[in-house]
Write a structure and sequence with these properties.
Elements lengths: L5 E4 H4 L1 H10 L4 E7 L2 E8 L2 E7 L2 E2 L2 H6 L6 E6 L12 H22 L8 H13 L3 E8 L4 E4 L4 H20 L8 E4 L4 E6 L4 E7 L5 H16 L2
């Protein structure tokens, strides 16, 4: 197996095809892409994308920001191990999600004149930690009062498919809520249990769990998570 670095340009291969190259050949190593917009790093382990970094942002959200890159240089260095694991989903699923998320953000911007906010990497990491400490909670996100996604936890792809149909309705509800601070709302569905609560007049937290979690436990979890995020 060759250990030589592979170099090239995005104009030769295309960004999406480039990301799939280490996956299809089951390579382990570091893919670095440098453009006028900055440098992005992607770590692979036996073909699986396990870590992405762009500026202060990490994880699958990186792809949403840079999936449209068309110019720049890339280098793939075989054998380099990831410094941390921030991605657990299948690469194909992540790419499809990133492309869809990019289109949704552009659509929102065109239709509503609302500029999408950049995801807060530090807050997203904090949500990951809160999710791990909250038994039964499988997803946490924070949105603005305009319904824009500000931060989210890294969650299982199977669970994300269950909650995705609810996300648009929930963010619309938050954006149109008549009060300054979103009130507490609980949703009990056959697929998921969801809780919504305003943190302040700028942010609202949404948590989700499987249908086996009763609303009483969900309310207690929301209380602890809200307290941790607001410090109150």
């Amino acid at each position: 197996m060759s250990t030589m670095a592979i170099n090239g340009t995005l104009s030769d291969i295309g960004f999406v095809s480039l990301l799939q190259f280490p996956n299809s050949s089951r390579k382990t190593g570091l893919l670095t892409v440098i453009t006028m917009d900055g440098k992005a790093e992607f770590y692979y382990s036996k073909g699986e994308l396990v870590h992405a970094k762009y500026g202060k942002k990490t994880g699958s959200d990186v792809l949403v920001d840079i999936v449209d890159w068309t110019e720049g240089q890339f280098t793939f260095e075989p054998g380099l191990e990831p410094e941390e694991i921030t991605i657990k989903d299948d690469l194909h699923h992540i790419l499809m999600w990133a492309l869809k998320e990019r289109d949704e953000r552009k659509k929102d911007q065109d239709e509503n004149g609302v500029t999408p906010v950049e995801l807060d990497a530090e807050l997203s990491q904090r949500l990951d930690e809160l999710m791990k400490s909250a038994s039964g909670i499988e997803y946490i996100c924070v949105v603005t009062t305009l319904g824009q996604l500000l931060a989210r936890s890294i969650s299982d792809s199977t669970f994300m498919k269950k909650i995705e149909p609810f996300v648009e309705s929930i963010t619309c509800f938050v954006a149109k809520y008549p009060g300054k601070v979103t009130g507490k709302v609980f949703i009990e569905d056959i697929a998921v249990s969801i809780a919504i609560s305003g943190l302040n007049d700028k942010q609202t937290v949404i948590i989700a769990a499987g249908p086996e979690m009763k609303l009483g436990r969900l309310a207690m979890a929301m209380g602890r998570i809200s307290k941790d995020l607001t410090g109150v």
